Amino acid sequence: MIMATSHHVIIGLSSHDVVRGLVDSQDEGPAEEGIQYVAMRNLFTREACEALEVKVEKKSYSRHVRESAERVEFSKTMEEWSEFRKKMNPDSLTHPPEFIVKPRGQTVWEGKTVKLHCTVAGWPKPRITWYKNNVLVDAKTHPEKYTTESNYNMHSLEIKNCDFFDTAQYHASALNVKGEVSSMATIVVKSRQLYYRKKVFKSYGYSSEHGVTFNTTIIDKFEVAFGHEGETMSLGATVIVYPTVKKYQPDVVWYRDSVPLKTSKWVHTHWSGKRATLTLVHLNKEDEGMYTLRVNTKSGFDSYSAYVFVRDAEADVEGVPVAPLDVRCLDANKDYVVVTWKQPAVEGSSSILGYFIDRCEVGSYHWAQCNDVPVKYARYPVTGLEEGKSYQFRVRALNKAGVSRPSRVSETVVAMDPSDRARLRAGPLAPWTGMIRFTEEDSTAGVVPGEPSDVVVTEATKSYVVLAWKPPMQRGNEGVLYYIEKCISGTNTWQRVNTGMPVKSPRFALFDLAEGNSYSFRVRCCNSAGISEASQPTGAMTVGDMMDLPSAPGVPVATRNTSTSVVLHWAGSKEVKHLAGYYIDCSVVGTSEWMPCNNKPVKQTRFVCHGLNAGANYVFRVKAVNAAGYSQCSAESEAVVVLAAVGKDCIHLHSSILYITALKDHMVITWDAPAHDGGADIRGYFIDYRTVKGSVTGKWHELNQKAVTTNTYKAENLKENVFYQFQVRAMNMAGVSKGSVPGAPLECKEWTLTVPGVPVGVHAQEVRDTSLVVLWESPVFDGRTPVTGFYLDLKDASVAGDQGWKAVHEKATKKKFMKVTGLESGTSYVFRVRAQNLAGVGKPSANLGPILAQTRPGTKEIIVDVDDDGIISMIFECSEMNEGSKFVWAKNYETMTDTSRLTIVSEKGKTRAIFNSPSLEDLGTYSCAVTNTEGISSSYTLTEEGLKRLLDLSHEHKFPVIPFKNEMSMELLEKGCVRFWCQVEKCTSACDVEYAFNDAIITQGKKYTMKFDKSSGLIEMYMDSLEVTDEGTFTFKLVDGKAKGTTSLVLIGDEFRALQKKSEFEHAEWVRKQGPHFVEYLGFTVTPECNVLLKCKVKPQYIGKLLLLQYLLSKKDAGIYEVFLRDERGQDKSVFNLTDAAALFLIPLLSLCFRDSKMAASERVKSGVTGEQLWLQINEPTEKDKGKYTMDIFDGKDGVKRVFELSGKGRCTHKDAFIKATLLYSRLAAAIAERNRARVVGGLPDVVAIQEGKSLNLTGNVWGEPAPEVSWTKNDRQLVSDERYKLKFEAGKFASIIITAVTRADSGKYALVVKNKYGTEAGEFTVSVYNPEEEENKIITDEQLNWLH
């Protein structure tokens, strides 16, 4: 029995997701893919493809079975037919790509994310590629901007953080073996700034308004800038818009962090028509950020961005926190506003305890503190405002050290109802005055308001709770006030909070709640008609912080960026609410000081830290911040050295291609190495060529499949008489650079030139304000004869064309370098080099420059150092080392291959070249260049004189000597004691002294006493007495570390015996003075009465006298007089010999007169007594000495007078004697003058012939008493000692002249002139300077002449 049963069979089309799931479950293969194609085409071409279509039909069981059987049979037939088609035509299932769903164009705001979708079918499975304005979109290269996905034939392109640059046409291209198909969609990104200004932005291209397409270029751009709070900073750039259209100006807009800037008292903008300037007045940390200059034209726009950092100003009190920032006012109402701010980057010497909020009514200058207790949250509800008044707010931070400076004031906020503020946005009610008017509503109708609704807790902290609610729907025709009530959970007691002061705003902040307790809240309305019913209470709420501190960010990863910046990435905080941003700190490895990298929090997890020291090793950490406070700092990053990142785009090939030689089928080219290697060594070069026919150029083709390591290449298999052009690309570990500037087209044919080719490798080093060094290499093509020299030319870079070239030197030089001096600082110059052979001078090299004659800031020179061990070395430092930078030393600007003379040691930014065994072989110019920098280099010339000075200094350091301020001396003290002493200039506390006598060490004891005062350097040794055995050498030996010093005193022979006798006498005197003794020994005086008085003085005080009358004095009184002293203590004796003194008694009785005037003794006129004769002596007699001389002798009673006439008058004539004496004196004076006059006695040649470039050193021997004055002359012009001429006069006998590196200008007639009071003399000689190269060039053999002809 068959029962008819009803079945509901679902017949319909499943959605795309269902079909996609079915397709994914099948095995892949050509047949299955074809079925998928058919199914998906039929599926997605229907209008209702995105919805599940369901049809319900009622069928009998028999019909269902019959249809099922027919369906199975049909399926088998289709499978058999499909298998047959596969066998007959395997490609029948392949299909070209087809867009089932095409991407659709969209319009979005700036900063949003947009996503394009498409669905593509085809077999084999098509490959999808996205293009932007026909330029490939590379999502792997720019993952921060683009994301592409391809899943189950569904493809998408996501564009993040859209800006105006993303406005373009985007193409999705699908490609397989059967063909290619594409679909386009347009994305338009709208600027809110331009939208509000009602300006329509046009895409790139033709401008119908002016009939031209504008091209915008921004030059003289502002760089990354650093400022401090309170300073004024200006940013600017020059804008060039081409072509120039009269009365048309572009729209110039400045942005900070993608937000357009408006002119205010803090921000001033200026557009002069060519230059855009932004001035930030009184910098604050709010001004930190990414600044963008955007220039909008009718044809498009151009923009440029750079970051501005603002550092904190110095704190008034050390240790206090810095000022908070970004103070804003939110949720303003009639009497209530929420003030928010951001915590500063630096908390000071201790953590921040809280913040104080100040308010000021606009129009007054009085700041009132809003809170008595500091709040920790960076949010605070300020209540009690007066409706209709305007306010400003500021915030101060507090820690244990004190209170910070206040933040920048907030924008002005008006206390008013939000609905009124919305109505007033279109303009003030009083447009002419700008004032806001408030009117009271009519209160005639007394209607009790309804209860408020939706009472909620919007903010909750330990310090306060903020309630918000909706005003009642029924409130009459007048305003309403609100009362707030609270209830502790578990009780039914409601307590009104603001009984005395109802609030006008639907917001209220409750303070002084007990932390940890649970509360419920409700609100009532009131007006003049009464108080409403209470609102529905809030749920129980426990007082505490609703917002937690952020979790610590992930470990930052630092990567190199530039020589002064590092790029930092980190994972954001996982658990954080209302994130304000991140602060980044950095620290130099080895120090514990952390410095902020940014003073304004950033929300991105990528940041570029600028202003770092090049070559320093840094670590970084990150902390998050929200209104609750700071998170824990992240773990420190791995240390990174601040160097420029490695990249192929950093390689710059400035020089054009140079052609060295050419034949019928090949050409040899050369090029200069790149100035920058991109942070990694250059691994090779690739050369490209193309043919040139007239103004038509062909495509570039590679010449070499494998990179060449030299900068010279032979291009082979070329066609004769065809013009070729070449370019070079450099390669490092990061990839291959862009091509160099192509060389000039040149025909491939054999050269027949006789002159040399162009010098190559021209470059400059050691660029300074007034000098630089130009270096070059010889040309590869010498011509018919070898190269004999080079010429260097220069010109001012401001002179256009080939005019203004000047030769740096007159004669050819064989050197491949030359130092150019006499440049004008701040002027740019261009250089070129020409080679010469016997056939003539070749073409100039490629121009070098322009090069600005200016010393690079921070430039350091090579210094020569002699260390404590006496090692001589040259030191060069560079603070701008980049990745891959190396120090390259050269001697005479040629790379040094002999390492036996120098040892090079380089570490970080410092290199040292150590002389292994300094000698004359090391003389020359040493240079050091730093690769991969802006031409940092320096040189040092080691001369013979300098080497001698360094060797002397090295010997002093190897064998240091303790300098003595005073050598050893001796003095005799009382009792016959002898003191030996010396004094050193300086010594350390470790200095030690050894005392020696005749090389035997002596120590302190009974005989010797030693003292050494190290503070003053005084060394003393005392001996009680000198004995016969003490004759010899006394020595002090000093040792102070490595330094040594010795000083000695020799006491032998007569000197020792005299000292010993004196010592014994002093000792005897001391013994004598212990008893009665003479203080003054017996002596004589002559009284005015001409009596001779003998007297003495003894101790105890007693004067003994003996008077001898002068007139009775005779030879019989001559003799020896003695005085004796005796008592119980001892005795003493004094002796006076009157025999020797008798003649002296006559001196006081002698009187001399000249021309009746008494004569006074002087250096020229002297008198005296010899035995029984009296004499008068006149030195250097003159005519004035003629006259009468009178001599009176008086003995007390009688006198004798003698007269002597030298004038020829009187009784006796002595005129002849005077004349003879005068003549004799003249002859003697002339003989003395001839003997003592200044003269040149030898040492100077008559003629000196010297080679150009050598040093001239001559010394002349001179004589004269007194020592003569010395001077040198050249061509009768006196020379002055300077760097060119070094003049010396030593020991009063040797005069020398040194001329370094003589030139032709030094040829001439020289003289050594000496002079003193007795005469002058000159020693003359001639100097001739010659150039051996010119002599050789003047002599050309007959064979050479015949060969040239």
UniProtKB/TrEMBL annotation:
Gene Ontology molecular function: structural molecule activity
PROSITE patterns recorded: FN3 (PS50853), IG_LIKE (PS50835)
SMART domains for this protein: FN3, IG, IGc2
A Gene Ontology term for the protein's cellular component: myosin filament
Domain of life where this protein originates: Eukaryota
Residue ranges annotated for the Fibronectin type-III domain, each copy included: 323-418, 451-545, 552-647, 651-757, 758-858
Domain Ig-like: 97-188, 850-943, 1250-1328
Protein's name in the database: Myomesin 1a (skelemin)
Record organism: Neogobius melanostomus
